């Protein structure tokens, strides 16, 4: 099972809205929609792990909060600078969620989360 972090992106939200519409019209079942979302999770995690070669560095003025729970790190940084080659981007506040990419096949998601997703689709 892959991480579901990218479902909250523009692409992920649009996919979920489209699937919801197809369910409402009776063109697909909620079970099929869940299978599509699980495939999306797998594909996006695989693409980011294997296809993205861009590197960037960042520097934060202050680490506001941090947390480690269920093998997931969450950091809230303030006064952050991101640099990629010649481009510099500044942000007042950034939240970083970091997961171990090597544990993607470990099946970390509970059945309850899957049924919660399925219930939200109906």
Would you write up a description of this structure?
The chain is α+β, with helices and mostly antiparallel strands and 122 residues long. It has a single domain (5-100, 111-121), classed as TATA box binding Protein, subunit D, domain 2, CATH 2.30.18.10. It has three helices and three strands, in the order ααβββα. The protein has helices at 10-24, 30-50, 111-121; strands at residues 57-69, 72-84, 87-99. The longest helix is centred in the N-terminal third of the chain and has 21 residues, at 30-50. The two termini are 22 Å apart. Mean pLDDT is 82; it is low at 104-122.
Shape: elongated
Structural class: alpha+beta
**Euclidean distance between termini CA atoms:** 22 Å
Low-confidence stretches: 104-122
- Beta percentage is 25-35%
Tally the structural domains: 1
Q: Largest sheet, described in full?
A: 3 strands, antiparallel
Please specify the SSE layout and strand pairing.
Elements: H1 10-24, H2 30-50, E1 57-69, E2 72-84, E3 87-99, H3 111-121
Antiparallel strand pairs: 1-2, 2-3
Helix pairs in contact: 1-2, 2-3
Domain Transcription initiation factor IIA gamma subunit N-terminal: 2-48
Keywords: Nucleus, Transcription, Transcription regulation
InterPro entries: TFIIA_a-hlx, TFIIA_b-brl, TFIIA_gsu, TFIIA_gsu_C, TFIIA_gsu_N
Compose a concise summary of this entry:
With 122 residues, the chain is of the alpha+beta class.
Which structural traits does this protein have?
single chain; TATA box binding Protein, subunit D, domain 2; three-stranded antiparallel beta sheet; 32% strand; nucleus; TFIIA_gsu
């Amino acid at each position: 099972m892959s991480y579901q972090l990218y479902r909250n992106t523009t692409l992920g939200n649009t996919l979920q809205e489209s699937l919801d519409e197809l369910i409402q019209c009776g063109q697909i079942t909620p079970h099929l929609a869940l299978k599509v979302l699980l495939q999306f999770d797998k594909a996006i995690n695989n693409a980011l792990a294997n296809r993205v070669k861009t590197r960037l560095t960042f520097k934060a003025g202050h680490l506001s909060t941090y947390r480690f729970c269920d093998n997931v790190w969450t950091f809230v940084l303030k006064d952050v600078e991101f640099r990629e080659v010649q481009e510099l981007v500044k942000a007042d506040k950034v939240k970083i969620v970091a997961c171990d990419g090597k544990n993607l096949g470990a099946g970390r998601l509970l059945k309850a989360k899957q049924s919660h997703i399925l219930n939200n689709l109906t």
